[in-house]
Amino acid sequence: MKRGQGTFEYVLLLGGVLLIVVLAIVVLQNTAQQSFQGTGQQQCSARLLTELTCQNSNPSDANRWNECSQVNATTYPCAPVVGPVAPCAGVAPATGMAYCGTKPLSG
Hints:
Layout: H1 5-49, E1 70-72, E2 97-99
């Protein structure tokens, strides 16, 4: 009766180890994916800072950032599609475009 008992215990042990490995992989994958999304957002904001369209060309203007300028929404997915209510009221974005929005933080 006890002939297959050792083999069955090894199968249970391997099954438990496999379960732990699969759970660890799932947790690490989710953590890495969230980290990469945060990095993508930072890179998009850094590129938006250098976008000439969002820069006000008036040299006397102390705030050179133009929130209501429009950029390609596919190029800058971090730019808001719906602009700020107060400064951009009545300015609807063109199809496929987004507002520059509030100036992203540098660094």
